[in-house]
Design goal:
By secondary structure, this protein is α/β, with parallel strands linked by helices. It folds into two domains: about 90 residues, Arc Repressor Mutant, subunit A; about 250 residues, Rossmann fold (3-Layer(aba) Sandwich). The strands form two sheets. Strands 5-4-3-6-7-9-8 form a seven-stranded mixed sheet, sandwiched between helices. Strand 1 and strand 2 form a beta hairpin. Helix 2 packs across helix 5, helix 7 crosses helix 10 and helix 10 runs parallel beside helix 11. The structure holds S-adenosylmethionine. The site of S-adenosylmethionine has 16 residues, from helix 10. It comes from Ohtaekwangia koreensis. One of its GO terms (molecular function) is O-methyltransferase activity. This is Ubiquinone/menaquinone biosynthesis C-methylase UbiE.
Length: about 350
């Protein structure tokens, strides 16, 4: 579905939207503070509504603080006010209770917010210049294991929320041909490997990842008692001079290839082709922005691309499926099967050597 072919807004709606963009940082931070001070939650707990004075009484926030925050919340659409009594809106209810919203919100605040300020430099240099707010790292993946705990927690919650929700849908497809050996590239904390072990009694999984993530995965998998069925390949996939493991019935890449540029993806896929056993398949799970059911799904992915530019590596993105399939073809594969709308907007591509 193409949501973006025509301009659907009237002039009045357009000037309103332009103001939302101009004030976006104030809207975002006001909402965060309303949530973190407990103001929104306090009002939600009183369906009959509360006055500003009652909110001051029930929270640790000053009279002035409550006044500016609650007035701003009216314009944002988080509160309504009639006869000085404030009530939460449905939008506030989602801010407070919806997991998807919270994961996106915390990711934007804790991981991206400060670094986005130098987006122009990232675009100019093709480097994640925003990552400097956390130290001197070439990519976010090198930094992840060293992030402050809250930042790492928000990154992992964001990453896992999107991939975890698809695992149940894709396990039967990946295990239809009973792979005995599976390479999980970008295996991260080992969540997919654990799903595989629980789904199939025989499969041996090799996780290919950077050192910091291999340590996290090793700890998680050993703790769960699957140490005998896991192997690790600790390496940087971008270094083509390093050996690539071989002899796999299945290669799994979930939310992995979006971490790389066009040329890097083609290089990785070419090396995957050499690593497959005869009759083996490559399984790619990716959220493509053109394969979303709702326009807001496409919106979220297009904005996530900007995180890749400013914070992750400066040269990757959430791709359009047709551009991505061009890389698959160029690397010598064909798409044998495509399943869309898995979990939260993921697509599974089953690829076979062409
Ligand atoms: C976005 S996460 C995806 C994690 C997991 N597959 C999922 O679906 O949730 C990308 C993973 O790729 C790994 N990665 C990124 N760059 C890498 C590189 N150059 N070499 C090896 N692994 C890399 C990261 O460490 C991280 O674990």
């Amino acid at each position: 579905m193409n949501f973006f072919e025509t301009d659907k807004l009237t002039a009045l709606q357009s000037i309103e939207k332009a103001q939302w963009i101009a004030f976006a940082p104030a809207v975002f931070q006001t909402t965060r503070v309303l949530r973190e001070t407990g103001i929104l939650q306090t009002i939600q707990q009183h369906p009959e509504g509360l006055t500003q004075a009652q909110v001051v009484e029930k929270t640790n926030v000053s009279k002035y603080g409550v006044r500016v925050l609650m007035e701003a919340a009216l314009g944002i659409g988080l509160l309504t006010c009639k006869d000085d009594v404030y009530k939460v809106t449905k939008t506030a209810t989602f801010i407070l209770n919806d997991k998807l919203t919270q994961v996106n919100f915390d990711f934007m605040n804790d991981v991206c917010y400060n670094g986005l300020f130098t987006l122009d430099e990232s675009i100019q240099n093709g480097k994640p210049e925003g990552l400097k707010v956390f130290g001197d790292w070439p990519t976010l993946y090198r930094a992840l294991a060293h992030f402050p705990p809250k930042v790492r927690e928000s990154w992992l919650a964001f990453d896992h929320y999107y991939s975890d929700a698809s695992f149940a849908d894709v396990l039967p497809i990946v295990f239809k041909h009973k792979p005995k050996s599976l390479l999980d590239i970008g295996g991260n904390t080992g969540k997919w490997a654990l799903e595989c072990f629980q789904h199939d009694q025989d499969v041996v999984v090799t996780i290919f990842d950077l050192p910091g993530q291999v340590n996290m995965a090793n700890k998680n998998i050993t703790e769960k008692g699957f140490g005998d069925r896991i192997r690790f390949h600790e390496s940087d996939i971008l270094d083509e001079s390093l050996p690539f493991p071989k002899g796999f019935d299945a290669i799994w890449m979930s939310q992995f290839l979006d971490c790389f540029s066009d040329e890097q993806i083609i290089s990785i896929l070419k090396r995957c082709r050499q690593a497959l056993n005869p009759d083996g398949s490559v399984y790619i799970l990716e959220p493509f922005w053109d394969c979303q059911r709702f326009q807001v799904g496409a919106f979220a992915l297009q904005q996530t691309s900007i995180y890749f530019t400013a914070m992750a590596n400066g040269n990757s993105q959430m791709y359009h499926s047709e551009i991505f399939k061009g890389f698959i073809k160029e690397a010598g594969f064909m798409v044998a099967e495509q399943k869309d709308m898995l979990g939260v907007g993921n697509t599974l591509l089953v690829c076979k050597p062409a």
